[in-house]
Amino acid sequence: MNAEAIEVNRQEIERNSIKIDQAFSQISANSDAITANALDIADLQEGLAAVAAMPDMYLNPNEKWATTGAVSAVGSEVGFGATLALRGSDSWSIGASVGMGGDEATGRIQFRYAGE
Fold this sequence. Notes:
44% of the residues lie in helices and 35% in strands. The chain is an alpha+beta fold. The protein has one domain (1-116): GSPII I/J protein-like (Pantoate--beta-alanine Ligase, Chain: A,domain 2, 2-Layer Sandwich), CATH 3.30.1300.30. Strand 3 and strand 4 (104-113) form a beta hairpin. It is rod-shaped.
């Protein structure tokens, strides 16, 4: 009877050992996923800082061109941006904007038409 109880305990220990190994494997996979998410969040903060720093295109009625700069902060990230606006005619203008936050960069082109 004692030998049977020892064998049952041995089998239970073996099963528990397998479950512990599986748990450690899942913990490792979760740790990797958390690390990847943290890096993705940092990239998003950098990108948001870049976008937030891009100034709008604006020209006063008598201006042929204008340039604008901006600085932004999103979380712990700082972004820098600049816009150049050019007047093509009394009705048309075009602008180009760039933004940089961390190692993320973004840009946009803007068009404006105004009729009388």
